[in-house]
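#structure-requests
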Amino acid sequence: MSDITQLTSPLLSNRPAISIINGHVIDPANQVDKKVNIHLQHGKIVALGDAPENFVAQRVIDASEQIICPGLIDLRFHLRESGYETKGSIASETKAAAAGGVTALCCPPDTDPIIDNPAMVKLIRLKAETEGAAKIYTLSALTQQLKGEKLSEMRKLKDAGCVGTSNALHPVKSTLVMRRALEYAASHDITVFIQAFDPWLSDGCAHEGAVSTRLGLAGIPISAETIAIARDLQLIELTGAKAHFCQLSSAKAVQLIHQAQEDGLPVTADVTAHHLHLTEMDIGYFDSNCHVIPPLRTQRDQDALRRGLKSGVISNIVSDHQPHGSDAKLAPFAETEAGISGVETLLPLALKMIDDQVMPLSDVIARLTSQPAETLGLKEGTLSIGSDADICIFDPEAYWVVDREKFLSQGQNTPFHSWELKGKVNYTFKSGEMVFSSQ
């Protein structure tokens, strides 16, 4: 009996033996970028190249002209409909994730109920195991009920399975409370995920600039982001806590994070796929599908985000998937729900960085796989022998037109409807189980 067989659960032992042949494997974690066959057994990767001795494939997939990479890891994915987790949302939204090549996702704590107790962590994990087409990792609430007043029991929540902590879009107004939270997190080696914005400057719905003025929309200045980042960087330097800044939106924010990294602070950052392709100009005449937080900013900011991604200051591309019901986007712009149903367009939007000459394919894949895994402290995002067979197979040259009516997500709120994108997922495997096929 092989070591792989000995280490697998009874459930995984029932997974078929599969050979994926003739594909181009890109595995940034192991610096693999070549045409090679890959073999799966009992839900694990057992070989690259020649099949193991006595290996008999029950299924062979010809991946000619396709890319084989680790399953994508999405650092910001909301398991909810119309702002709240609902019955069946884990099943439907993880199916949407699988259709986008995502095999692992990270859920912020602003579910209903809030993730501020171990029971909620276990409930989500149980639902993911029984209903989900993707693995789900959770962030714990930084403060109780996300009120920004009393600290949550972060250590207990970490022991229950949380991979980090966050106050989501709920500000911690007290600098002292934020300091104590960072000290607590640092003492237990917990990464704090920070959505940086000053609540007193964020009472708006669009970037404060020419477009918001023309449309009569209340603006959110860049300083709402940079003031909050500057404060938290000072506290990180004071406490030594590890922090990840979520959804940078401005050139000045990239500059602040870059300087902090140069100074040796343990900070990382991500950007949403839509901020890499949309600006304030895309709001047009009150297109509510472009109502997002943080807001879409200027072309200059977008260029800086792309440069930050290329240089590695920004190490992750996220979807910030927020599915909403149709009514949520029908009110006047300022009164609509913010957010995009983004997981099914995450990969092709990221791949546009290649055609736009921002970065090569291997770096794009790294920003979606190995680097998110590193941020979360997971042994995923790799095709190493013995690792879970979490795999995405996509055609990098296939063009397709985004049709929100065909989304598997419960939310059809996307500003990319009717866009022609390049790069289409054909197969997704989670622990050796085929959870999506375009066939």
